[in-house]
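pinned: reference chain
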Amino acid sequence: MEAMIIFLVGGVVTLKTTAANLDVRLVGDPIRFSYGRVEVQLKGTWGTLCSRQWDINDAHVTCRQLGFDGAVTARSSSYSFGQGTGIKWKNDLQCIGNESSITECRQDTWSSVSFCNFRTGYPSSAMCTLPVRLIGGLSAKEGLVQVYYNSTWRWVCGEHWNKQDADVVCRWLGYLGSSRVYTNTTHLGGNDTTWMSNVQCTGSEDSLFSCVHVGWRRNHSCANNRKAGVMCSGSEGKNRTGRS
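pinned: its structure tokens
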């Protein structure tokens, strides 16, 4: 369907479109882009998403479109990450939550507005689930490493685990790096199966998934069920939450 532009009183521009090529991004996290104000690109122009019905289902789909497993929180407020500069795109998305992109969600006609407010909907924001977490530590910045893959949390094997690997995990979680590297054979409930083994990071990767390892499969051979552990340094990370 061809786009039709109508200039309305108050500076509103209505765009009738199938929105087949909607890109989305989060503005707020400069490292992993895993949380922040939701912006969409429509007809080549990025703008803040204003929505009166923004909820966790919409956030789940947004995060999934960006490559995350889902969302931890969804907010509609000017105070979280601001209005942003430039154009604002208004649409009351109604996602079920299982869509792979917001293009697949039920939606209204897209409109351009000057500000996000109680009439147009406040700026939408989301915090996405990081597929890594620390378990069993004395604080949020330490513990044994688990990764989320194929809808399941599993351990990372501690064989050949070193400082470079630990640094990648800690930066992934939002810390400066690691201050301690260790392994542990403690049974923490559930099961002792692993997703990753023989991890070999150079230390510059942005996630363990970018590091060399022997591939994805459960029950990797892992001597004595030795699990990888870290203690991170620096200020507390903002994205530690994983799906239970």
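why pinned: Residues 1-19, 237-244 have pLDDT under 50 and may be disordered. The first strand starts at residue 5 and ends at 8.
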